[in-house]
Design a protein that fits this description.
single chain, alpha+beta, globular, binds uridine-diphosphate-N-acetylglucosamine
């Protein structure tokens, strides 16, 4: 079994070039299934979830080749295949097959959907969007002789359902209006890719107007990963260091930057780079919300900071059960009290520990605690963290961390 060995307690300093956004790259990869052509994608992160998505694309007959900084996806001759549950159950993003496969083949057999196990993850809104465009359901099979534009209204914000709605609407006959869709940067990034492939998508207030068209290959550079950026930036106050993330990540991270400013960290940010330095001087309290609120994917990473400094609290409104990682974090000395979707983190002394990665971002939080704690830690199953973090060992080492991944 693989593990990351960490000798913690070192100050981390230096620059990080962010990877492409995992949460943008995955829907874009599935969106290539809608196109009859060759797509050229840049800054697709080399992470576990992307590798699985590529294997799923290949199972439909796509050719996917990495050529330097480009990923070239040829979807000209595809054939419908029943999705392989051994692959779909590894990643949550396999749910985008609903929109992509219905859009391309008028058919999808829903296979088990994977991803982090922190709550029930329903797909009723995805199915309602499909039904609004003329899809019929027979058990786990969804079919449509042709997708026909219509009105899709979401009464709660769902990233996944909005992505499936955009995928289907882009190739449906006629016009679709999507109301109440998610506005996360990765959703807008998907729309940008689809537009590069010939889609007709226009945003107006809280509505999105889509007119279906045949799509050709797209040409697109994936936006930087705000969650990876936020994780590395958090390491600066946590380890008495100074970390700069290059590029314009600040544009996506308002809520995160404001939280750290309120906590007393020194934050400088512009369109070229973002730098964190200095310790926290106050407790931090956060409520996760859909964008532009504080992202749920950056909540576990706050706990080691709260523990090391003045404590704080997290109210989780997106995934009410997203606190399973706290038990693993408690092995590093993090004291907490949990009340359903709310957790209080107590000021605590961090210490080295051996744990299994509890989930992707919870595993990142454990790694952060290990980097801050003096002494040796071991985190088993780093693959869980590497589902979302590219070249983890190399990037941390370049900041001065003593980390090694061994088998
Ligand atoms: C969510 C997050 C996303 C994050 C990802 C992984 C939001 C709005 N979404 O996206 O930022 O990257 O988890 O952590 O912050 N829901 C339903 N029915 C559905 C679909 C969703 O009730 O058909 C509910 C979910 O139970 C959840 C909420 O809607 O409480 C948001 O889910 P959704 O945005 O769809 O999840 P992801 O796309 O996985």
């Amino acid at each position: 079994m693989k593990k990351i060995i960490v000798n913690g307690g070192l100050s981390l300093r230096g620059k990080v070039v962010p990877q492409g956004s995992k949460n943008a790259a995955l829907p874009i990869l599935f969106a290539t299934l809608l196109t009859d052509g060759v797509s050229v994608l840049r800054r697709v992160p080399e992470i576990g979830d992307v590798e699985v998505a590529i294997r799923i694309l290949k199972s439909f007959g796509a050719s996917v080749i990495r050529d330097g900084e480009c990923l070239i996806v040829d979807t000209r001759s595809l054939k419908y295949t029943k999705p392989d549950s051994a692959l779909t159950s590894k990643i949550r993003a396999s749910s985008y097959l609903i929109g992509a496969s219905l859009g391309r083949f008028g058919l999808v057999e829903i296979a088990p959907i994977g991803g982090c196990d922190f709550d029930k993850r329903p797909i009723d809104m995805h199915l309602a969007a499909a039904a609004a465009l003329g899809v019929e359901r027979f058990g786990d099979t969804l079919t449509a002789k042709k997708l026909v534009g219509g009105e899709i209204t979401f009464d709660k914000v769902s990233v996944g359902a909005t992505i499936n709605a955009l995928l289907m609407a882009s190739v449906a006959e006629g016009k679709t209006v999507i109301k109440g869709g998610a506005r996360e940067p990765h959703v807008l990034s998907l729309a940008e890719f689809l537009i590069s492939a010939g889609a007709d998508i226009a945003y107006d207030g809280d509505k999105v107007f889509v007119t279906g068209r045949p799509l050709r290959g797209g040409n697109y550079t994936v936006i930087p990963d705000m969650i990876e950026a936020g994780t590395y930036l958090s390491l600066a106050p946590l380890t008495d260091g100074e970390i700069t993330v290059e590029g314009n990540v600040a544009v996506y991270l308002d809520a995160f930057l404001n939280l750290f400013k309120a906590g007393g960290a020194s934050v400088t940010a512009d369109s070229a780079q973002t730098t964190f330095r200095g310790n926290l001087t106050a407790e931090i309290n956060v409520k996760t919300e859909p964008y532009p609120g504080y992202p749920t994917d950056l909540q576990p990473q706050l706990c080691p900071l709260m523990a090391r400094f003045f404590g704080g609290s997290i109210e989780e409104t997106v995934w009410r059960g997203r606190f399973g990682y706290l038990e693993a974090l408690s092995r590093f000395g993090v004291g907490y009290t949990r009340y359903e979707s709310f957790a209080k983190i107590h000021p605590s002394e961090l210490k080295g520990a051996s744990v299994h990665s509890p989930d992707l971002r919870g595993g990142a939080a454990c790694l952060m605690a290990a980097l801050a704690a003096k002494g040796k830690s071991e985190i088993y199953m780093p693959e869980v963290i590497m589902r979302g973090y590219e070249r983890l060992e190399e990037k941390l080492s370049s900041l001065g961390a003593d980390v090694k991944i061994v088998d």
